[in-house]
Amino acid sequence: HVQLVESGGGSVQAGGSLRLSCVVSRFVNCMGWFRQTPGKEREGIASISTYAGAAQYVDSVRGRFTISRDKAQATLTLQMNSLKPEDTAMYYCAATRMYSGSKCYDKPQRDFAYWGQGTQVTVS
Questions:
Q1: How many whole angstroms separate alpha carbon 15 and alpha carbon 99?
Q2: Separation of alpha carbons 94 and 113, rounded Å
Q3: Residue 6 three-state SS
Q4: Residue 110 has what pLDDT?
Q5: What's the farthest any 2 CA atoms get from each other in the chain?
Q6: What are residue 89's DSSP bridge partners?
Q7: What pLDDT shows up at residue 72?
Q8: Cβ neighbours of residue 123 under 8 Å, at least 6 residues apart?
Q9: How many Å apart are CA 53 and CA 86, to the nearest integer?
Q10: CB–CB of 18/80 below 8 Å?
Q11: Which residues pair with residue 10 across a beta bridge?
Q12: What is the 3-state secondary structure (H, E, C) of 13-57?
């Protein structure tokens, strides 16, 4: 069983930065960050392979967010810069064994067996 625990959420003004961390009990093939706002479907925004390959991003965050992994620290990180009010959401890290490449954020969420509990980000 893989456990994921997020931290680092909070409130920030537009244009500011936040760094989300996800401590993992074990890295799994492809890992990503998702977010959800009330009344909307959860969306994948970034993902990275445990093995190799460049990180992948949805258009709305590309150039502002950076996903990275630190195997020594067993941590998946999302650095968020130039935050906008529309980035306000609950953020989740997740992992899937079904895809080994870096682009898994856009795959069916039912294929992600492991999820963290979420951390709230509010941008005003």
A1: 34
A2: 8
A3: strand
A4: 97
A5: 38
A6: 121
A7: 87
A8: 11, 12, 13, 14, 16, 83, 84, 85, 86, 87, 88
A9: 29
A10: yes
A11: 121
A12: CCCCCEEEEEEECCCCCEEEEEEECCCCCCEEEEEEECCCCCCEE
Q: What is the pLDDT along the chain (124 residues), one digit of tens a residue?
A: 899 999 999 999 999 999 999 999 998 999 999 999 989 999 999 999 998 889 999 999 999 999 999 988 899 999 999 999 999 999 999 999 999 889 999 999 999 999 999 999 999 9
Whether the CB-CB separation of 13 and 4 falls below 8 Å is answered with: no
Closest CA to 33 of 123, 124, 119: 119
**Residue 53 has what pLDDT?**
82
Query: Given this model, what pLDDT does residue 76 score?
Result: 96
3-state percent breakdown (helix, strand, coil) of the chain, nearest 5: 5, 45, 50
Residue indicated by tokens 């997740």? 94
Return d(Cα 92, Cα 21) in angstroms, integer: 10
Phi, psi of 85 (to 5 degrees): -55, -30
Distance CA(119)–CA(51), nearest Å, equals: 26
